[in-house]
Amino acid sequence: MRFDPWNPDFVAHPYDVYADLRTDGPVHYFDKTGQYLIPRYEDVNALLRDRRLGRSYLHLDDHSVFGHEPEPEFQEPFWRVVRAGMLDVEPPIHTRLRRLVSKAFTPRMVEALRPRIRVMAAELADALAAKGGGDLIAEVAEPLPVTVIAEMLGVPEQDRPRLRPWSADICGMYELNPSLEAQHTAARAAEEFAAYLRDLARVRAQNPGDDLISALTQVGLTDDELVGTCVLLLNAGHEATVNVTGNGWWSLFRNPGELERLRKDRSLLPTAVEEMMRWDTPLQMFERWVLEDIEVGGTPIPRGSEVALLFGSANRDPSVFAEPDRFDAGRTDNPHISFGAGIHFCLGAPLARIELIESFGALLDRGIELVEEPTWKPGYVIRGLTELRVSTG
Fold it and tell me: Is the bond leading into 156 cis (omega within 30 degrees of zero)?
């Protein structure tokens, strides 16, 4: 089986194929998506930092100049939201947006949230234990990061159940060759999410509180920039963390010796969390546009092309990681690339680390055990489990 992101068997275990890709060469053209696959760590790391590539090309010229057709009109609500957030813009707009938002994600600000996150993680773990178990993803992995980022932004508690479905529908558009139904669903979710946030921002602009949306209404963002920023923070603020939690526990259950090691020595939690992100990467692919002709490992890639940086492959590259296919909860030399690199490095990385460490710590205290082998969602780019059934002892 070669690279086949729509094949459930490949989604469940892409790592053998990645090893073949790394061996066969630095660049592989994938005609089903028209992308250049980049599997090796050195190249992925370098291209993330290379300013001759961007998340968008529209700051330079229109679609036709770069050899592409405009998106269909029905997708406009999706692109209006996405292209106003910092992930899909380039400097100088990106620089301005990131500078404004980063004030809420300094190490000091984020560390101040740890006591609250620890309490939330314990409450969720207690609730799971009180029932003797259940779906760890629905009952712990999802509500913790959603609640944290919703509290930071100031989303009222009664509205929070709407966030996860909107986020999941929007993120469906990031998969490779999404179906027409998924495209319409993403556009509709983006339109609803944007309308909700515009209403909330108007309320906060008139009656500001101690929250991030209130702060963003005061700093000169356009309506679209404010909505795009909030959607990005809400999506990125929990989507990957949910999947690291599910994938991470599944990794531990498949490596029972490392799970037992972690149960006996909680000081390993920080390195174990990093290893979970490396060993079974939640974001398998990150795409970027080529803004000028480049060459990777002797292979020319022309302007207007799209490169697919294979994070999951880079994180198993033996030229960087000793015994890359072995899960090591105490791995210290671990420069994994799961948070990206360069100007688009994940702003929420410090927050995600705290959430994960506190969540895993709380659940380890409840002695959870696997009930049944999980299945993977069909998505490949944003890769996670449908559910993870556990019991508590």
Answer: no
